[in-house]
Amino acid sequence: MAKRIFYREQLYSDFISESAHALADAVQHHLEDANNLSTTYALLSRMRLSSSTDVLASAERVIQHTINTYSEPNLTPEEIQSRAAKREDPLREFSDICRAELKAMHRQLQ
User: Fold this and answer.
1) What is the pTM of this model?
2) Do 38 and 82 contact (CB within 8 A), yes or no?
3) pLDDT at residue number 57
4) 3-state secondary structure string, the chain?
5) How far apart are CA 57 and CA 71, in angstroms?
6) Cα angle vertex 69, ends 77, 85, to 5°?
C-alpha cells in the first residue's frame, strides 16, 4: 500500500506540474503545437490505470479548461495578476480530490 501511495503522489504531482505549465502557456499563447499537451494526456492515461473516477473526472476538467483557455484571447500581465488576486485556480479541485484519495489510502495503512 505504501508503494501505491508513493506512486500516486508522484503521478498527481507530475500532472499538477505539467498542467500548471500548460495553463501558463495557454493564457499567453494560442495552441500552435498539440505536443504542448502530450505529457498531460499521458499522465491522464496513467491515472486511468489506478485512480478513482473522481480524480479522473477532475483531471479531465483541468485538461478541458486548458484547451478552452488556449482558444481564448491572450491575457495581459494585469489580467493574469487580477485572476491570481481572485484566487482563480483551475487545479484547486484536482488537488483537493487527490488529497482526499491519498488520505483515505493512508488510513488503510494504519
Assistant:
1) 0.88
2) no
3) 98
4) CHHHHHHHHHHHHHHHHHHHHHHHHHHHCCCCCHHHHHHHHHHHHHHCCCCCHHHHHHHHHHHHHHHHHHHCCCCCHHHHHHHHHCCCCCCHHHHHHHHHHHHHHHHHHC
5) 21
6) 40
Mean pLDDT of 92-101: 97
- In this prediction, residue 50 carries a pLDDT of 94
> What angle (nearest 5°) sits at the alpha carbon of residue 30, between those of residues 97 and 43?
35
The grid cell for 86 is 481572485
Which residues neighbour 90 within 8 Å (Cβ) at sequence distance 6 or greater? Answer: 19, 23, 62, 65, 66
Amino acid at 85: A
